[in-house]
Amino acid sequence: DQQVKQNSPSLSVQEGRISILNCDYTNSMFDYFLWYKKYPAEGPTFLISISSIKDKNEDGRFTVFLNKSAKHLSLHIVPSQPGDSAVYFCAASAHYGGSQGNLIFGKGTKLSVKP
Amino acid sequence: DAEITQSPRHKITETGRQVTLACHQTWNHNNMFWYRQDLGHGLRLIHYSYGVQDTNKGEVSDGYSVSRSNTEDLPLTLESAASSQTSVYFCASSDSGFGNEQFFGPGTRLTVL
């Protein structure tokens, strides 16, 4: 049973427009959420995160929104650039019972930003 | 600069052979992780370690083992490689505690024939 779901395998956006990547989760114990970006033949790189006590976190062109009641988070990229073309993974962790917050990953969404 | 490295980057082996993938980090992180990435599955946790001499099974640990004899290294061993273990393997490390992101290595592409 998938605890973290990214239901869109791919997304295509025009350069300069907004990209919105979505993620749903089922485990109400998750208290920390992260987005990773992955280029081909490279390891994932951390992009942005949000704690469950917040509903928004912003870093430059990237903003993550968290809706706890809906168990939903989204990543907004504004404006989108061709270099943003990559696979984006949503991840979640829970810190209880001695856990150091192991990450549970979604399957990823491949973003293509067209010039 | 601190980094996390993996070797080899590419490996082809035969069914039944023992294979060890190396992971080395210079961040001085307590936590280290091994994942595999497969099409349609995202990243799945194989084993993890919260410190020297500590190892734990992840979601897909069957057929794999790890050992942690120092802070810097967490080698992943496939005891008897199977074709189902053909995958891309990523090692990651992080500090202990809440809110610490994991840093990933560049990956090892393993093919089992």
Mean pLDDT of chain B: 95
Percent range of helical residues of chain A: under 10%
The largest pleated sheet of chain A is described as: 6 strands, mixed
Strand content bin of chain B:
over 45%
Radius of gyration of chain A: 14 Å
Separate helix tally of chain B: 0
Low-confidence stretches of chain B: none
**What oligomeric state do these chains adopt?**
heterodimer
Write the layout of secondary structure elements.
The complex is a heterodimer of chains A (115) and B (113).
Chain A: E1 4-5, E2 10-14, E3 19-25, E4 32-38, E5 45-51, E6 56-59, E7 62-67, E8 72-77, E9 86-93, E10 104-105, E11 109-114
Parallel strand pairs in A: 2-11
Antiparallel strand pairs in A: 1-3, 3-8, 4-5, 4-9, 6-7, 7-8, 9-10, 9-11
Chain B: E1 4-7, E2 10-13, E3 19-25, E4 31-38, E5 42-51, E6 54-57, E7 64-66, E8 76-78, E9 87-94, E10 103-104, E11 108-112
Parallel strand pairs in B: 2-11
Antiparallel strand pairs in B: 1-3, 3-8, 4-5, 4-9, 5-6, 7-8, 9-10, 9-11
